[in-house]
Amino acid sequence: MAEMDTSGGGGHKKGPGVKKGKKLSTRVDLTPMVDLGFLLITFFVFTTTISQPTAMRLALPDDKVKPEDQNKIKQSGALTILLGKDNNVFYYEGELALDASNFKSSNFKDIRDEIIRKKQQADTNLVVVIKPNDESTYKNFIDILDEMSINVVKRYAVVDISDVEDQLIRRTEGEPVPQQ
Amino acid sequence: MGRPKIARKSTIVDMTAMCDVAFLLLSFFILTTKPKPSEAVPIQTPKSVANKFVPDKNVLMISLNNEGHVYLSFGDNGDDRAKKKSALEDINQRNNLGLTSGEIDALAKQPFIGTPLAQLKQQAHLTNDQITAKNLPGIPTQDTTNNQMTEWIRAATTAYAGGHMDLILKGDNIAKYPVFKNILTAFKKNEQFKFQMVTNQANVPQGTDLYKENMSKKPV
Question: What's the number of domains chain B is made of?
Answer without folding.
Answer: 1
